[in-house]
């Protein structure tokens, strides 16, 4: 009996000692996570997220420092090498002008990334601001902004690019990005408008207004953080779409123009020699496809993580 009593006493003491620690661990595990922490937790469990993110990171690095993996000059061409196939030291062969296809493919990432990032940031800012104001204030402001967005939304972006950029002399990253921003914001504005309309009806927004919070504080502190998720998802996918759009416009001869180095320009040149030198088309087209696919996969992963209905 004494031994049993001592054992019970020791067990009780151990439980009393470890009790606070166990409660703390339970509280730590059960502590609710925010939307962004929960999304990051889900993203870390998706291999697709890591693969697409690594591809995009590599693309950004070579866009900033192409000399890390390509030591040549993309504009240095020798006609004697015209249409020569892959060889030692020139893995991707030469194009019609005798330029190294590998070097041009690497340097072509810079223009694509610049157009994609500038266009996406411009469209996100313009569309989110106009759509957010339209959804929050409603009334006549919503009616005016909605009709304006309908006008721009009704213009096919590719056809608009051909018409608009054909009238502009000299294609550059700034020109192409400005055009994409001009015609690309209406879709994001609609998404932002819907997200703001949903958020402004929530109890925490109504409580903030009841406590006397102004429009600016309500928009920036309460609505914007909770309406930002669909904007981020759309922007991630749209970045790859804008890169593809730049290549399409350059292929048609109205986007970036020589001496700019672009995948669209190289694909356009290669289309004339696809039978004689298929390697000219394979590498820039492959780089473009992988880039667009990486952004689409990343956008899908972010969408799945930020949308509670898809978990």
Structure, explained:
- By secondary structure, the chain is mainly α.
- It has two domains: 1-31; 35-310, Orthogonal Bundle (MetI-like fold), CATH 1.10.3720.
- 73% of the residues lie in helices and 0% in strands.
- It has helices at 2-30, 35-43, 47-64, 101-137, 139-153, 157-166, 173-200, 203-210, 215-251, 263-270, 279-306.
- The protein starts with a helix and ends in a 5-residue tail after the last helix.
Count the DSSP helices: 11
The average pLDDT is 83
CATH topology of the largest domain: MetI-like fold
Question: What is the name of the CATH architecture of the largest domain?
Answer: Orthogonal Bundle
Count of folded domains: 2
Radius of gyration, taken over Cα atoms and rounded to an integer in Å: 27 Å
Q: End-to-end distance, in Å?
A: 55 Å
**Class based on secondary structure composition and strand pairing:** mainly alpha
CATH class of the largest domain: Mainly Alpha
Beta-strand level of the residues, as a percent range? under 5%
Topology order in helix (H) and strand (E) letters: HHHHHHHHHHH
Provide the low-confidence segments as ranges: 1-30
| Largest sheet, strands/sense/barrel | none
Percentage of residues in helical conformation: over 70%
CATH H level, superfamily name of the largest domain: MetI-like
Protein name: Oligopeptide transport system permease protein
Family: Belongs to the binding-protein-dependent transport system permease family.
Membrane topology: Multi-pass membrane protein
GO cellular component, one term: plasma membrane
């Amino acid at each position: 009996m004494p031994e049993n009593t001592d054992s019970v006493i020791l067990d009780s003491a151990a439980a009393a000692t470890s009790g606070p620690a166990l409660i703390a661990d339970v509280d730590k595990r059960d502590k609710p996570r925010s939307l962004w922490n929960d999304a990051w937790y889900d993203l870390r469990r998706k291999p697709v997220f890591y693969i697409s993110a690594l591809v995009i990171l590599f693309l950004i690095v070579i866009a900033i420092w192409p000399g890390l993996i390509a030591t040549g000059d993309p504009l240095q061409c020798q006609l004697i090498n015209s249409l020569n196939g892959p060889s030692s030291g020139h893995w991707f062969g030469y194009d019609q002008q005798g330029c190294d296809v590998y070097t041009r493919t690497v340097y072509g990432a810079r223009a694509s990334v610049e157009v994609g990032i500038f266009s996406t940031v411009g469209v996100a800012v313009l569309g989110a601001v106009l759509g957010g104001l339209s959804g929050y204030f409603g009334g006549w402001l919503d009616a005016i902004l909605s009709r304006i967005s309908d006008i721009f939304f009704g213009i096919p972006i590719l056809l608009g690019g051909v018409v608009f950029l054909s009238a502009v002399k000299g294609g550059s990253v700034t020109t192409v990005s400005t055009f994409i921003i001009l015609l690309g914001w209406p879709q994001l504005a609609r998404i932002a408008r819907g997200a703001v309309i949903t958020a402004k009806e929530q109890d925490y927004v109504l409580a903030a207004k009841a406590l006397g919070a102004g429009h600016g504080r309500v928009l920036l502190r309460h609505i914007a953080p909770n309406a930002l998720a669909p904007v981020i998802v759309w922007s991630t996918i749209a970045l790859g779409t804008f890169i593809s759009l730049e290549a399409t416009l350059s292929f048609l001869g109205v986007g970036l123009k020589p001496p700019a180095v672009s995948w669209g320009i190289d694909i356009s040149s290669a289309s004339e020699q696809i039978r004689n030198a298929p390697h000219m088309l394979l590498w820039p087209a492959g780089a473009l496809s992988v880039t667009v696919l990486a952004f689409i996969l990343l956008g899908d992963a972010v969408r799945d993580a930020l949308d509670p209905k898809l978990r």
